[in-house]
Amino acid sequence: MSPDEGALEILRAEGKRITAQRNLLLEVISESRGHLDAGEIYRRARSKDPRISLSTVYRNLNLLRELGLISELHLDEEHHHYEVREEAEHFHLICSNCERVIEFDSPLIPRLLAEVSAERGFLVERVHIDMVGLCDDCRATLDLRSAR
To answer: Top-level CATH class of 89-148?
Structure first.
């Protein structure tokens, strides 16, 4: 899968070169359909291009984030994860046991934003919601252990 034309247009519009490394990183992140940290992005990119360096990965992740092509997520950990930025906002459920990340959306969130904006006179530009708990699988496993 190659980066979509929209991402390449943004790079061009910002006067940035479309390098093989940038293409590769966008490809790796797009293919993952998940939330990769920089180390995993580096490992996957290196398997396709052994000449890519970790500093190149970090430098380009920062650029792609600044241009709005990818999102940097914290996911209740000290290091960052990255995903392709999508038009539709979504949020994350993070399992504190297995670290699985489940994306979700809810019709309650726009209502909450409107209510908070009206009450506080605050213009919300961006929302970041991570909910940490136990996924069904881990909860079932823990329930089985406690039943013994």
So the answer is: alpha beta
